[in-house]
Every structure is written in structure tokens, then in C-alpha cells.
Amino acid sequence: MTTNETLPIPTRPARPFIGEALTLQSWDDVKPLFDNLLARPLHNAQDLRQWLIDRSELESYLSEDFAWRYIRMTCDTANEELVNNLNFFIAEIQPPMTAYGNDLDLKAVDSPFLSELTDEGYDIMVRGMKKAIEIFREENIPLQTELQTEERKYGAIVGAMTVTIDGKEMTLPAASDRLQSTDRAVREEAWRKIWERRYQDHEALDQLFDRLRTLRHQIAVNAGFANFRDYSFAALGRFDYTPQDCFNFHESVAEAVVPLLNDLASDREQKLSRSDASVDPLRPWDAKVDVEGRPPLKPFATGDELLEKAIACFDRLDKELGDDLRIMRAMGHLDLESRKGKAPGGYNYPLEEIGVPFIFMNATSSLRDLVTMVHEGGHAVHSFLTRELPLKAFRNPPMEVAELASMSMELLSMDHWDVFFDNPDELRRAKLQHLESIIETLPWVATIDKFQHWIYENPTHTDAERRENWLRIYNQFADTVTSWDGFAFYQEYIWQRQLHLYEVPFYYIEYGIAQLGAIGVWRNYRRDPAAGLAGYKKALSLGYKAPIREIYAAANVPFDFSRDYIRELMQFVGDEIRKLG
Questions:
Q1: What is the value of pTM for the model shown?
Q2: Is the separation of the CB atoms in 250 and 446 below 8 Å?
């Protein structure tokens, strides 16, 4: 560690196995290292332990190399050199790395000394290795390479989308801020222009998705699965729940949460119509405006201000958490503001060697941006809490745990949002809006997840069938108050705005599961702040050295998405909303 104005800046660990000067320019630069691991004799448990450490060192290097290529490309999707750098890794490095990875997994699980590694976490790692071996097929390697190349096209298409309003070209996130305007005409103009621009590319996005669906189904069939959904459950290591559990979640949300969503929409329509008689019926461009006619909340003006206030907010929880963001700032591991050419969305990308992640987002000045910042900040805290774990496998928890870290931070930090809002009424509005967004989140998660199940259970579906079933599923979880009359052709393509469907399929139910866990963490914190925060950090510090249920238990919350538990948590959220109301 070195010191930068008393702030400890992490340094990259030594590379005793791969060498300090390694630079990846071709597969030949790392092939000898993989060959060493594959050929090395293992005479005892200590040899095997060291072999796993050396493998982790190599894979951490490659993971970080890929991460930087991806980060730089998403920061500038129009830069052909950056796109090519990423595609080089996907095409030239990933295929042989995947093949060697399977051979190394086989070597590990076949070792007679494996049973002697009884430290916490090894059983979880070996369980994952065995599942990876089970689904590996060499013929899938070129298909996975092609798939990754195709998936990256989504960001380029969407990242290039801009609209012109009042003579000014702006990104879609920037234009979306106008949906909070108290002038209904301004909202409608922005909404129409955003959706007109999205619709211009709906055919290209449809065709891209068709290619992705076909590739994914073929990969699943090659691996011996009936469909890509079943393959994904194996590939994602979903050892703790089944597709039927997801179906039960969908039904529970429809029964326990959608009625609350309807109540919110009815209340919104009633309040807006008092001051604007044209709000009859409620329209899609009325969803984000303040119902009392107050101007949009502006928690910050610039990316620098957003970061500074987020640090202050995290400091209130625990100075160590604020320092995590300070370290990232000092190391240049943040790109926060929206601009033309950036990929859509936001992420926290773990960097496996240095252990200090990178936060990417498209901030303008909205409350949603504040929430994204603390959400990704929660992921970052997770990375810091696990960076000292000795093996890469231990530092890579499943998404149900990763999203617990981020979604809990949204709620834990909320009691300290006065650093963003010094006006008590604005602070109350911000908290109220965020709690209401939870009621909106769970039905949307159920929508996207159920849609994915249908897509991959029906891999030969036509575009028309996809539109029909999207609307069927969407309407099951949407409020019945908002009118889309005249815009059904946009409604049929709402799903295209969800990046996960294109880039990370079947990564979405985790948000619903983790949202429930996060409410539980927050409830614990409200009852006892010290114990609640300690449980949160204890759970995150486990990384992936325990099953999901045990990690949730460490945070003192159940891994439960039953109807009764969802109702219980919604009652708690409702009580908190009424306190603010």
C-alpha cells in the first residue's frame, strides 16, 4: 500500500506465477502458463492448494485485462480501436481459455487430494467446477465467441441514440429528465421523441435478438438441455432455487404487489387531474412528474458533485465505506456523466487483480441517478470487502448476493440523503419516490423474468408471437390505469430497452430476490443500525464461500420469496410510506 494524502491506495499484488511484466498481445503470451498448470504434477494437498492459487493469479490477470477492454469500449462505443481491442479478446483469447479452463477443472476435481482441502469455501468452488464440467461442450466455444460479439452490438446501437429537443441534441437519459417536467406538453414531447427514436431501430434490435436467441438455443441443445433456460440455470450456478420457484415468485408478485401498483397509479391520476384536467386518462408521460406540481428533484448538478455527496453519505454509515469511493476517485475508476457515444446503463465492474472496481453510469441530475450511484457504490463496497480473499472463485459471488449488496445500499443510505437534499420537504419526496419505486421494481422484474422463460421455452417463435406474448406478460404486471391508446406499436417493444435481455440473459430475477433481501436488511438497520450494518458487511465479506442461503442468514435475513414473505415486506414498506406521507 502507498499513501495519497493519508488515503491508503491499494497496489496490485505480486505476480509470482505469471511474472510482473506480462502483457497480453496474443494467446501465445499466456499459453505456456496454462500448459504449466495442466502439466504440473500434484503430489500432495499443499501442491494442489498452490496450484489453485497460481490458477487464480492467472485468471485474475485475464479477467482484469478483459474488464479494462470492456470498460474502455463502453465509455466510447464509437471508437473502432476500442471495439477491436475488446473483440480481439473475445475472438482470440476467450476460446482457448475456455477449453483450457475445462481441462483445469477436470484436473482439479480428479485430484486425490481434493478432499483434504476442507477450508471454508472450497466445497462451493468445487461444486461450481463440477457443474461447469457437466455443461462444457467444445463445439460451443465458437458459438459462445460469436454470441459475445453479437451481444456487444446492442450497446453500440442504443449508445448512438440521441434526440433533438429545443434545437439541442441530447442523449436519451438526458431527454428522460424532461419526463419530470410539470408542463405536460414538455413531458409528452420528450416521451414521443424518445420512443420515436427507439422505434427507428426496433427492426435492427429485433433481428439482433433473433440471432442471439438462435445461438443461445443451439448452445443449450449442444450441452444436452431442452432449452436455454435450463442451460442458464446450470451455467449460472442456481443451486438454491428452480424455475418453478421463479414461477411462484411471478404469481406472488402479481397477487401481493400489482394491486399496490394499481393503487399508486390511481392516486397519481387523481392528484394530477386536480391541477390539470387533461390528465384523464393517465398517460405514459405522466409517470415521473411530481403529483403536487413541484419541479423535479435535482440532488446534484455534476458528476463530481454526485460523487462528493455520495462519499459524504457513505461516511455517515461507516467511514470505511466512504473511503472506498475516495480510493476509486483517486485511482480514476469512475465515469459518471451521460454523453453521446457511451453505452447505456450503469455497472460496477470488479477488477480482479487490483481489487478496486470501476463504476460506469449515465448521470444527468435526477433522483434515479442518485439511486444508481449508491446502488453501484454498494457493489463497490462488496468488491472492497472481498478483495483480500485468496482465490478468484471466492471473490465472485452469485448475482443474488451481488445485488443484495447494491440494493441494500440504496435503502441503507436513504437515511442520510439529507447530504443531497437540505430542504426537508425535498428529502421527504426523495425517500417517498424511492420507496414507491420498490413497488414498481418487483412487477417489472417479474415481467422481464417471465418473458425470458417464455422466449427460451419457445425458441422458434416468430416476431409476431414475441410481440403478442410480451403484451400478455406485460399486462399481467402493469397497472391498469395508464392508457397506451394510440401507442400500441411502441408498447410492443418496451422490452427492447432492457439491456439484460440482450447482453446478460436470465440475469434479472436476482434483482427481485435481492430486493426482498434488501428490504429485510433495511428493516434490521431501522431496528438496530449498528447490528444491521454489521450483518450486511458480514454477509458481503463471505464472498462466495458459503451457499446463498447462508450468506443471507449472515445478514440476518431469510432467502425467501414466498407469497407470505413478500406480503410481510410490502406491509413494512407501506408503513414507511405512510410515515412519510
A1: 0.92
A2: yes
